[in-house]
Specification:
Blueprint (H helix, E strand, L loop, with lengths): L2 H12 L4 E10 L9 E5 L4 E3 L4 H17 L3 E7 L11 E6 L6 E9 L4 E5 L4 H12 L3 E3 L7 E4 L6 H10 L5 E3 L3 H9 L5 H6 E2 L11 H19 L13 H10 L17 E3 L6 E3 L6 E4 L2 E4 L3 H9 L1
Parallel strand pairs: 4-5, 7-8, 7-9, 9-10, 10-11
Antiparallel strand pairs: 1-2, 1-6, 2-3, 4-6, 12-13, 14-15
Helix pairs in contact: 3-7
InterPro entries: MoCofactor_Util/Proc (IPR052698), XdhC_CoxI (IPR003777), XdhC_Rossmann_dom (IPR027051)
Protein name: Carbon monoxide dehydrogenase accessory protein
Pfam families: XdhC_C, XdhC_CoxI
Length: 314
């Protein structure tokens, strides 16, 4: 990374803000970008840095948002109109951009997604300690129960369970795993006066039935259910595109929920709107600086002012 982009990437990582690092790996004249030029694209579609002119940038922004959704790296090949296409290859996306000045450019896109947060109440118990240890191995960020967690495990074994459950519910945690027998788990919830919606978020006697007996086996059972819930049901509160069991993999799971990162930055970054330029056919990210025009009451968005002016003239 260039120095300024590297500093920005560190800042975004510290903020748990999902972003994509884009690096120019090949450029064919005439083009304004050079190999090594780089930028970061945030989850709101904004870009910081330089990877080419406005037309190439539009293609990069649209493709980058796609990588945040699936968590996979991507080689983006932006070719001028009329250029012979590269053969299809796994992990590569070819975009024909009629706005380019004639050169071609290849840009490597790497999504950087925050690790999912897992709250653990009761780390002083053998089961709680085992959950925290295994969760760290699975690439969760283990923390005290609180806001922005993908899940909370309550392993107090009779100590302060009701308070831990209530705190997690008030923090908006979507999946709360209570370590308890079926009988005691039901008794705990029955005595809390939970609403139907609240009770649906609490899983008494948590874990997949694998015949677990030891603390480590119980931890494996519980975390298996949490991983399944994140992957299959997209449970990741406030997660702004993030999270994932095994950085990239969990990123795929969390990003799929688009914008609510398993413990990502404050809930907020809405999924950016995209539109198709009616002149060149490019997909563009709609933002405050995106050229647009209103014709007969219909809004149209463009990759650059050139396409907008041609559309208006026609």
């Amino acid at each position: 990374m260039t120095t300024s982009i590297a500093e920005r990437a560190r800042e975004l990582t510290g903020l748990r803000r999902p972003f994509v690092h884009a690096t120019v790996v090949r450029a064919q004249a005439p083009t304004s970008a050079q190999p090594g030029d780089d930028a970061v694209i945030l989850d709101d579609g904004s870009i910081e840095g330089f990877v080419g002119g406005v037309c190439a940038e539009s293609s990069v922004r649209a493709a980058a948002l796609g990588t945040l959704r699936d968590g996979a790296t991507l080689l983006l090949r932006v070719l001028p109109d009329g250029s012979a296409e590269f053969p299809e290859a796994p992990g590569a996306l070819v975009v024909v951009n009629p706005c380019l000045s004639g050169g071609a450019i290849e840009i490597f896109l790497r999504p950087v997604l925050p690790r999912p947060l897992l709250g653990v109440a009761g780390t002083g118990t053998p089961i709680g300690a085992a959950v925290a240890e295994l969760a760290a191995f699975l690439d969760f960020e283990v923390t005290a129960p609180g806001e922005r967690a993908s899940a909370v495990v309550v392993a107090g074994l009779g100590r302060d369970e009701e308070r831990a459950i209530r705190d997690a519910l008030e923090a908006g945690v979507p999946f709360i795993a209570l370590i308890a027998s079926r009988t005691r788990g039901a008794a705990v919830l029955d005595g809390m006066g939970l609403t139907e919606a609240e009770r649906a978020r609490v899983h008494p006697h948590a874990g997949i039935d694998i015949g677990a007996r030891t603390p480590k086996e119980i931890a494996l059972s519980v975390l298996s259910e949490i991983v399944r819930n994140i992957r299959q049901e997209g449970a990741a509160p406030g997660h702004e595109a993030g999270g994932g069991i095994g950085r990239e993999a969990a990123g795929r799971a969390a990003s799929g929920a688009a914008g609510r990162a398993a413990g990502g930055h404050a809930a907020g970054a809405a999924v950016p709107r995209q539109a198709v330029d009616p002149v060149c056919g490019m997909t563009v990210v709609v933002g405050a600086d995106t050229p647009h025009a209103v014709v007969d009451g219909v809004e149209h968005w463009f990759c650059c002012v050139g396409c907008r002016d041609r559309f208006a003239a026609a």
